[in-house]
Design brief:
two-stranded antiparallel ribbon, 11 helices, 323 residues, eight-stranded antiparallel barrel
Length: 323
């Protein structure tokens, strides 16, 4: 199968500019142009078009409390009720991820929860919903890689290294000014410092110093929101694998380095390794399962093709109506 011809795939230059923003969400046009061999004017013009048209967005990821854990949910739903339940889950602040399967009868979601607690959503709300026929809830034990770590493979290693700023992770709490700056950047991480200062009421010089420090210490985490289909990656799939306990960590780390993988998690349950992939077509998906995943010695796998990514970081949409 070939990618959907109705999707307008970005040209190579725009894809490289999107990939540059993945390296540094606040990258300047001058720096990008110098590394990628484009004029700053061209970079600025193309970024402005991509951002204005909503092709991509750069957001700042909110800090995640260390005490919060997560459940991976698989919810089977009666066909006529799936849109309403998907929308209800997407509206919840404690559910950051919602995918609808291409078959239209299964919702895959992530729910924040406190480890070891009896989750109200799983044990009361979903079972009480008549449209739900079954619920599986597995605890995420370890995150190998997530969406903000994924990089579109259109830059050379040297280009990516040159565009990625050096950071030194420094643990510690943020103060009120830091939190205000981060909150202002959540919807638009490329907001100029002067605009952030106006939004927060703090002096421009203070905001500039705080943004630089937050970025340098790894507390300003940016994420590029882009439809992978615009990058030529037409197939979005979740692959649940069963891995021997002694190999789980090694397999998870190997998959985290795979260019197609934008999420890899060790979980409880019958399938103990969940992998989210973006690939060009079904041929590439078959190759990933048989050659790449199979070559790592997994004991079994189940694949669910995503029909719609309803809610992911920076994307809080509702399910599209189906014909």
């Amino acid at each position: 199968m070939t990618p959907n011809a109705a999707i307008d795939v970005l040209d190579e230059r725009d894809q490289r500019l999107v990939a540059a923003l993945q390296c540094d969400g606040r990258l300047t046009a001058e720096r990008a142009g110098d590394v990628l061999g484009m004029s700053p004017r061209t970079v600025h013009r193309r970024w402005r078009a991509l951002l204005a048209d909503g092709v991509c967005r750069v957001v700042a990821l909110p800090p995640r409390p260390d005490a919060i854990g997560a459940l991976l949910l698989r919810i089977r739903v009666l066909g006529g009720k799936v849109d309403a339940l998907t929308a209800a889950l997407a509206a919840r602040p404690d559910v950051p991820f919602v995918d609808l399967s291409a078959s239209g009868d299964e919702i895959l979601a992530v729910s924040w929860t406190r480890p070891g607690t009896r989750d109200h959503l799983v044990f009361r709300e979903l079972p009480a919903t008549r449209a739900v026929t079954s619920v599986t809830a597995d605890t995420i034990l370890h995150v190998f890689v997530e969406a903000s770590d994924w990089r579109h493979q259109v830059l050379s290693d040297a280009e990516r290294a040159a565009l990625t700023p050096a950071t030194t992770l420094v643990p510690g709490d943020t103060d009120e000014v830091d939190r205000a700056v981060l909150a202002a950047l959540e919807e638009d991480a490329r907001m100029p410092a002067a605009a952030v200062a106006a939004h927060t009421g703090h002096p421009d010089s203070t905001v500039r110093r705080r943004i630089a420090r937050l970025a340098r210490t790894g507390r300003l985490l940016t994420h590029v929101v882009v439809d992978p289909k615009r990058l030529g990656l037409a197939i979005d799939a979740n692959v649940m694998a069963r891995v021997a306990p002694g190999r789980l960590d090694a397999v998870g780390r190997a998959l985290a380095r795979h260019p197609a993988v934008h999420g890899a998690f060790a979980t409880t349950g019958a399938y103990n390794l969940h992998t989210a992939v973006w690939v060009r077509d079904l041929t590439d998906l078959y190759r990933f399962i048989t050659r790449d995943l199979g070559g790592l010695g997994v004991d079994g796998a189940e694949t669910v093709i995503v029909g719609q990514a309803v809610k992911r970081p920076g994307r809080t949409g509702r399910p599209r109506p189906r014909p």
